[in-house]
Each structure stands twice: as structure tokens, then as C-alpha cells.
């Protein structure tokens, strides 16, 4: 129990066979009181949410809702060992995401035919995929853009490592392949299990990243269109997104999607709203670039899960449409600048500077904090945070309106994950080594999402290049949403073995090397 | 003035008691321990919900 960073043995908080930890950390008076005040705020947010009878009804209807009981623990996992500015940056992000998801849930249940059944509200709702760039909705300020998959699967697995298992099993019971990516498989499972809210004037699905995603969308859209009577638009963004010859096609897809939404909602595209959003997207990009610039120095500030989780939310799901995220960007940048000026560090020792590449294990998102606390490995940036840095046009002119269509197409093509897993050899392999050089990294941690065919095919090429460059590379296998295949300890063991045998090192905090978190949320 | 001080004293006691209570819940992770106890019961509830399960 101490104010100093790294004074606690963080592994001692875990209890064998328990879903939760023994107690919360004492971080010194100031930081503990800050963390306590944020915990109070989270409890109030959850309290406000359950005050509405329809939300309580939804809690007893939808299986995935039980995971939301674990919201405070998710925040605890990501703030492990953090002090000062790092703790505040983490709360700025996590608390805003919690607030945003609470609003999303509230809206879903308001329009849901089984729960709130507010028809007027439902007619303003456009459903989108979880893993979908929402750029195409930037010019519809009076419509509600809601994703059913975000709360039912994506956030649920962040809250509880086993959250998707039931739905994966349901999908496989109905004959879906077992070796497909468990993310779209779980999303399809939610639909098959009749566990998705039913609402909306129409929906837009996207050929997000892979064959699994297309499979999942097929199952979901069949139910939406043929049973629920909700028309679905398939936004087919080109996969060879760096090629000039696909851009006109990509732009036409955006025009078609906008026309589809206008037809089914009766709302007209609003250029003023679009350009306001575009300014916010540019501001978020500027901030992210400044954080990454700091991460190139010996004093990185916004990194690990602080960078990864926030970028995923802000870049793709928000896409300039929520002004609160601009405020958060400003606050995070201010905190990062403060810490950078004082040459602060998030852990007591930085031993290695790593680039984390590949698709990270979703059931163990706080692994990045573990890397830092256990082995002193600083995850400077990760593949999913290395997204588009292109500035969008923001002035409303006839030429810019045409360019804006191409900007939206570019963002849609460059969604998180698909901008690296598709688009050719350069974006996945070559640029990794460019980033290693740019960030002065001395290690590469390569997630091997075993169901991701797009990445697995490049295994040998990564190893060949690592040997050529003389950079230590460690593979970490996992199955994204399913901890029954490789557990959290299984993930940690791959790093532990590498660090002890190849790097010949001892952990900074040995209590974290083996954790009894098999049953933990 | 005496009445005002008396009210102030009561408010201070209430605030302190609330702080002591919530801080104890926070520090010893009692909120999560309680929800962990509720969780298995909820699972049984979901098994009872009638669903139109199909592909």
C-alpha cells in the first residue's frame, strides 16, 4: 500500500477461484481519493441507468446484460498500478466510454419492440455493425446511429472474459464453422439465440474485415430483413484500399449508402453537420498524432490500453459525431503534455520498447498493462491504433462536397483492423518495420489470433524480417473472444517463457507472472 | 446561529458516515463481491426466457 509507482505486488490482489479481486489499490491519498471519486461517478451512472424500469426489464431479458454488473472491475483492471496523470488519462477515457455505452443501451431498449417499443424513436434509428466506420452517418445529425453488436458482444467481452462463449456455442450448434473468427461468430450467435434488441428504420452492414464477418452479417441480415422487416444495406468497401483505381467505386458505395438512409428514414443529408463532424475527426487525429509523437521519445505518455481502447471507440464508433469526445481529447492531451514536461513514467522501470502488432486478444485487453507492470515492456503503440492520419476537408464548397464523399470512403476503407489485415503486403508487414524504426522499438509482440486467416498466412514472412532486422519477436497465440482455447495465463505464459529463456530476464513484479484469474471476470 | 451550527453538525455527520460507508465498499471491493454473488442467479433466469432460437 503505497503512493510510489511499482510499490505494490499487484498479483497479491487476486484470489484463487474468485471472479473478483480481494480489494482495490491504495495509491497514496490523492490518487486513491481521485480513483474513489471516479468509482462513485461510475456507480451513479449505473444507478441512473437502472432507475428506468425498461432497463431493468432488459437486464432480465438479455443474457449479455449480466456482464454490465462488472463495469467497475473493468476499470480496475485497466488502472492497475497507475498513478498521477496516467490514472487520470485512463479514467477520462474509460468513464466517457462507459457513459457513451450506457446511453447506447438506454436508446436500444427505448426503441426495442420487446422492451420500450417507442415506435417514433425507433423510426429514427439506423443500425450499424460493431466493427464499422460510422463516417457515412456524419451528415445525419437527427438520426440515432446504434450498434446492437457493440454492447452485446464487443463491450461484454471487455467486461467478462467468458461473455461470448454462450453465443459461440449457439452458433456452432447451428452448424457454423468452429474455426471462424469468434467475434462475428458470437455476433451471429446473439442473433440466432434471439438475444438482440429489435428496432430501427434500416441498417447498414459493412464487409468489415474477413470471411467470418461476411458470414455473421449474412445470418444477422436474414433475420433483420425477412423477420423483423428492417431493410439492410450492404456497404462493400474495397479491400485494396491503397490502390487509386478502387476509390471511385468506394465513393459510389458511400453515395448509395446515403441515398439508402435518406429513402428509409425520410431524413436529408446535412452538409453543415458533416463538416462540423469532420473538424472533430481532424482534431482527434491531431491529438492522436501528438500522443504518438511523444511515444517516439524516451517518455511515452498515452500508450497501452489507454491508446488502444480509446482509439477504437473514438476513431470508428464516434467518428466526430459526439462533441464530448473532443473535450476528452483536449483533456488527455493536456495531461500527457504535463507528464511529458516532467519526464514522468507510468512504471518504475522501462526495460523494453515494444510495438504490439496483429489483432489483440479481446478477452485480455488489460494484457498491455500487465506487460508494463510485470516485465517493464512499454507497448508504445499497437496495430489497431495505427489508423488513418489523413486530414478531411472541412470547408463547405462544391468541390469539397465531392472530396468529402471520397474522405468518407477513405475512412470506411480504413476501418480499424481491415486497414492492416487487408490492403496488401505493405500495410501489414512492411509498415510494421517502419514503425519499429520510427518508435525506436527494440521488441515486437505479435498477436497470433489463431482464427484470423488474413494474418496467419504471413507468419513466416514476419519471422524472416525480424531475423533480418535483428529485432526480438515474440508470438502470442489466442482466440480473440474465447478464453477456453487459450486462457489468460496461457497468453501470459508465452511472454513469461520468452522473457526468461530468450531475453534471460527476471520480472519486475514476480507476483504477476502467474495469476489465479481463470474464473475471474 | 446555534440552530445553524446544529444543522451543520448533522450535515457533517451524515456526509462523514456516507463517506465511511462508500469508501469501505470501494476499498474492499464489496460492490464487485456482491455482484459476483448475484451473477449465477441471473444465469438461471436467462435460461428460463422463451426464445425463438433459429438460424
Question: Which structural traits does this protein have?
Answer:
heterodimer, A: 521 residues, alpha/beta, 4-stranded parallel beta sheet, 20 helices, globular, B: 55 residues, mainly alpha, 2 helices, 0% strand
Task: Return the average pLDDT of chain B rounded to an integer.
Answer: 94
Number of H- or I-type helical stretches of chain B:
2
Strand content of chain B: under 5%
Alpha-beta content class of chain A: alpha/beta
- What kind of sheet is the major sheet of chain A? 4 strands, parallel
Summarize the structure.
Chain A has about 525 residues and is an alpha/beta fold. Chain A is built from 20 helices and 8 strands.
Question: If you had to describe this structure to a student in words, what would you say it looks like?
Answer:
The complex is a heterodimer of chains A (521) and B (55). In chain A, β5, α14 and β6 (377-382) form a beta-alpha-beta unit. The mean pLDDT of chain A is 95. Chain A has helices spanning 29-50, 53-61, 71-78, 84-111, 119-122, 149-159, 165-173, 182-192, 211-226, 247-265, 271-295, 305-318, 323-341, 367-375, 398-413, 418-421, 425-438, 453-456, 459-469, 488-502; strands at 125-128, 144-147, 202-206, 232-235, 352-357, 377-382, 443-449, 473-478. Helices cover 51% and strands 8% of the residues of chain A. With 521 residues, chain A is an alpha/beta fold. In chain A, the strands form two sheets. Chain A has a four-stranded parallel β-sheet, with helices on both faces. In chain A, strands 6-5-7-8 form a four-stranded parallel β-sheet, sandwiched between helices. Chain B is elongated and about 75 Å long. By secondary structure, chain B is mainly α. Chain B is built from two helices and no strands. The longest helix of chain B is centred in the N-terminal third of the chain and has 26 residues, at 2-27. Classes of the chains: A alpha/beta (521), B mainly alpha (55). Chain A binds chain B through residues 18-24, 26, 36, 39-40, 43, 60-63, 66, 69-70, 72-73, 76, 170, 174-175, 192-195, 219, 521, and chain B through 22-23, 26-29, 31-33, 35-36, 38-39, 42-43, 45-46, 49, 51-55.
